[in-house]
């Protein structure tokens, strides 16, 4: 991500960034996450949306228990686990969130006709561009800011992520309320608040993506080792 342009860098944003650098305790991080979500909800209103993969359950719970009516969009790639779709359905009724489902322009069947079956295995970058990045870009049109569940602890490619940053590709503010949370802090929040988790968690899926490209991880493995296993791919392109 790029530096926030001067015309978009408000005193409030600067204060949040300073507080995030100073937030060292679990309690501080939870409070800051709630406050930045409340600020974003108030500041951007209908021009704010949350992207959810239904594998970022902590973010959904944090948003839904902070302010009612957040707009949330879920990218249905056509390759999701049934458990992930069920998690979306559960959150639609459990919390006051307005969840919309976004689809790629082409069905999987149509994509198979054009590019052959199992494109995800032969050219995962192209598959992600068509089934994730393109529909995400379309879903963000007309919005001034978006919220994600990105955390620095997720991957080496995300260590520079900030609480509030500038998405230069889309010319908009990007807000990452749980950016500084560790894996243990995520687990603690889920346990303390009884967060409904994607059932795949119980089967060893630490990071959840499309079914053909995701496997459970073993004890001691990196949480994202199950994504695009046996390849050097580490990101789908949504956040870099």
Automatic annotation (TrEMBL):
Q: What are the record keywords, sorted? A: Cytoplasm, Iron, Iron-sulfur, Metal-binding, Oxidoreductase
Q: Which reaction does it catalyse?
A: [thioredoxin]-disulfide + sulfite + AMP + 2 H(+) = adenosine 5'-phosphosulfate + [thioredoxin]-dithiol
Coiled coil residues, start to end: none
Q: Which residues bind [4Fe-4S] cluster?
A: 127-128, 210, 213
Gene3D superfamilies xref list: HUPs
Asked if the record carries the keyword Metal-binding, the reply is: yes
Its Enzyme Commission number(s) read 1.8.4.10
Look up the record and name the pathway of this protein: Sulfur metabolism; hydrogen sulfide biosynthesis; sulfite from sulfate
Localization of this protein: Cytoplasm
UniProt main location, coarse: cytoplasm
Q: Does the keyword Zinc apply?
A: no
Q: Superkingdom of the source? A: Bacteria
Which residues does the entry assign to the active site, renumbered to this chain?
Answer: 236
> Which intervals hold domain Phosphoadenosine phosphosulphate reductase?
53-216
* Cofactor binding note from Swiss-Prot or TrEMBL: Binds 1 [4Fe-4S] cluster per subunit.
**Names of the cofactor(s):** [4Fe-4S] cluster
Instruction: Supply the Pfam families for this chain.
Output: PAPS_reduct
- Which HAMAP family does the entry mention? CysH (MF_00063)
Q: Give the family, as the similarity comment puts it.
A: Belongs to the PAPS reductase family. CysH subfamily.
- Report the protein's function: Catalyzes the formation of sulfite from adenosine 5'-phosphosulfate (APS) using thioredoxin as an electron donor.
Q: What is this protein called?
A: Adenosine 5'-phosphosulfate reductase
The organism named in the record is: Nostocoides veronense
Q: Name the gene behind this protein.
A: cysH
């Amino acid at each position: 991500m790029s530096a926030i342009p001067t015309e978009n860098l408000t005193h409030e944003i600067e204060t949040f960034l300073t507080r995030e650098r100073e937030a060292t305790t679990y309690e501080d991080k939870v409070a800051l996450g709630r406050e930045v979500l409340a600020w974003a909800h108030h500041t951007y209103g209908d021009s704010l949306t949350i992207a959810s993969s239904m594998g970022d359950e902590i973010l959904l719970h944090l948003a839904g228990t902070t302010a009612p009516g957040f707009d949330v969009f879920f990218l249905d790639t056509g390759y999701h686990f049934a458990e992930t779709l069920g998690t979306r359905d559960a959150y639609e009724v459990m919390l006051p969130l307005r969840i919309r489902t976004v689809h790629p322009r082409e069905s999987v069947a149509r994509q198979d006709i054009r590019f052959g079956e199992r494109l995800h295995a032969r050219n995962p970058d192209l598959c992600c561009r068509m089934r994730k990045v393109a529909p995400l870009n379309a879903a963000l049109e007309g919005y001034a800011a978006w919220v994600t569940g990105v955390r620095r602890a997720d991957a080496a490619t995300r260590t520079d992520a900030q609480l509030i940053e500038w998405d230069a590709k889309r010319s908009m503010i990007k807000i990452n309320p749980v950016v500084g949370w560790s894996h243990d802090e995520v687990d603690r929040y889920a346990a303390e608040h009884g967060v409904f988790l994607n059932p795949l968690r119980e089967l060893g899926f630490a990071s959840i993506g499309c079914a053909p490209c995701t496997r459970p991880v073993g004890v001691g493995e990196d949480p994202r080792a199950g994504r695009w296993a046996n390849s050097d791919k580490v990101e789908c392109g949504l956040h870099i």
